[in-house]
Design brief:
heterotrimer; A alpha/beta (265); B mainly alpha (225); C mainly alpha (186); B: mainly alpha; Arp2/3 complex 21 kDa subunit ARPC3; 69% helix; disordered C terminus; C: 186 residues; mainly alpha; 0% strand
Chain lengths: 265, 225, 186
Amino acid sequence: MIELAEVGVDFPDGRCALEEIDLRIEAGERIVLLGANGCGKSTLLKVLNALIVPCRGSYRFDGEAIDGARVRDRKWSRRFRRRMALMFQHPEAMLFNPTVEEEIGYGLRHLSDAERRERVARWAAELGLSARLSVPPSALSGGEKQRLCLACVLAVEPDVLLLDEPTASLDPRTVGWLIHHLAESNITTIVATHHLALAPEFGSRAVVLSEAHRIVFDGPVEDALANTPLLLENNLAYAHRHSHSGHEHLHLLCPDGLLAAEEMK
Amino acid sequence: MHIPDGLISPQTYLPAVAIAAPLWLLASRKLRTALEDEALPRLAVFTALSFLLTTLMLPLPGGTNGHAIGVALLTLCFGPWTAFLAYSLVLLLQALVLGAGGITTLPVNALAMGFVGAWTAWAVFSLLHRYETAAVAAAVWFSVIIPALLVALVLGAQPSIAQAPDGTPRFFPFGPAVTLPAIVIPHLFIGAAEAVFTCLVWRHARRRRWVNPDRSKGVKAGVHP
Amino acid sequence: MTSPGHGWRLLAYLTAVVAGTAVHDPRWLAAALGAALLLSGRGRGALLRRALKGVAAVALLVSGGYLIMGAILGEASSEFLLLLNTRLILLATLTAWAVRDIDLDRALCRYPEARRWLSIVRVQIALFVRLAQEFRQAQRSRAAFHPSLASRTRGVAALGVAALDKALHNAEEVTQGMRSRGAFDD
């Protein structure tokens, strides 16, 4: 379904954002994209969403090569945007409609009025926004904005869902709901996160990006999480040595807490 | 320097609307042609930036502050048309959403500070661009002083433009002998403070490659004449 | 969801403001002020207070200056002072009323691009205001002594840099956000 071959992306100032990315994703796969801050996770998601055209290599979606000309083709773009949705890391990037109702309904312009209203009401209810439909998005709290963005991308009911750090400002209940919802559906999902503890909940296959902007691991999530050198080298966890009661421990810590504890001889 | 409603006569603001309207149209066309799809989101974000710049309090000697205008900074970074449009839209928002400034005085304020301010900054910078820091400082200072001068003249002209048959004024009552020193002198200091502020920001802008040093008149994100 | 009523309200407000500058009899202006306050319904006291607060400084400055000049030159007109102040208060009251009762977004219901622009501006202004607040709080929390003019200037400049940085980044992000949701495909 998705095929990246030797993809490289440079920032306008010449710095490298992604290098030699080879990735093949089949329909229905659930992938967790792991990497430290600044390693290129968001850029990779934007490449997949055809917002950034790679400087090197090729990107194919359902066999079609995606290049500059394809992205500028509005007819193709309309079809593509209905099939693949991206939730940005910062919700403010996606909010440009006057009310919550119009914001959720924006991606559903191809539906009839009745269908659109029904779908907006359903997703607003799912994400606890039913009472906020007539409010402007700017008036929502940070958590509500994030839930609104989630409602916007889920309402489109895409085949491929890209989520950029979805847990960053979502409350635990919504994170739980999202994990459950994704597990129940058969949408192809790619979730970028540096929260290792939640990685197995979001997918079964892990892709790890290094701080040199390359893929350094592609395999089962459990294997990635059990690979201490991989996590340490790629700044996904750090080792903390300490001792109590005369026993020395090595704690492997990640941003969201303790990952593993090991007793040292 | 915002003039509230009630001090400017219709004989002044109606012609100002007639001048400003085609300029707004032209500015938005230029923005659209240069940026196509990106025009709307960029203009919106720069309007918000312009809003922030106008609320900045520039420190003045003696622990006091003066409001920044920010038009010169917007001009140097994004070009005079974008600066003019973003600044006019901020005036509109301030008038209709916050109730600050005035709606009848908006075209005069937009023309003086937005249009003349932006183009003054642009012209002075283009003229002196070989001596960059001095060019930035002079561009900012003049972009504050010239509009202040204009506003002082427009206000000072009110007693002669609109008066009752018996000669009493109907709007702003003082002539240019009062308005020129009252408005221009404080702006000499505000202009200097804004010039220092803009030079400091400009240094970072150059270091971060927001502006293209080879094309001293060009900037990557803006619209250029 | 949208109401054409707000468009008409905006038009009525603009007409009233222009009319307020075309009438030069303080009695008519006072009558208009009374009518505006009567028609504005509940909360008219707050409306008047808001209007007075907005124009008090300008009205006092201009009136005071005029009185002093009049005393020196011996040609002050009480009629003019009445006209100027009634006009200032009337126009400020009309604006306060418009700000309270006109939803700009609804007034623009026929112009989807303008509404979208307004929505983005609102979201972005909230972001910039938060940035400025955090900057000022950080400056205050780090200032051990009363800051000098130079350090205050550096502080404002640092905020300027951060704001410009954020503006460029956000402009790119919002463009991508809109593109990602098919805003440029119609």
